[in-house]
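Case study 2.
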Amino acid sequence: MPDSMPKRTLWWGIGLALAGGVLAAFVQPVLYSTAWLNTEPGQTVLYFGLLAFDLLNTLVIPLGTSLIAASLVMFYLRGRSRLADAERPKRWVLPEPLERRTDR
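Prediction:
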């Protein structure tokens, strides 16, 4: 069974990076265009909403890009280890005790 960890990590990274970009591009204008946020309680909700989305933006995009980089490293190391396994000499196995030579 092939190792699916690098592919899964790559797709999670792409998804998180795209989600962070969508969050950065569309969420703030949608929040600012909401009419009920012009009231005093609405301003409080807007403040905490923007604070939460800024925190998510600060975390999601770098996390996505670091997952993409990690998956590339995993792909590279997996390719290198296959080459090393092919070049490595086969291990010598001790014979069973009954197969040992007794002519010494």
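The two ends are 47 Å apart (CA to CA).
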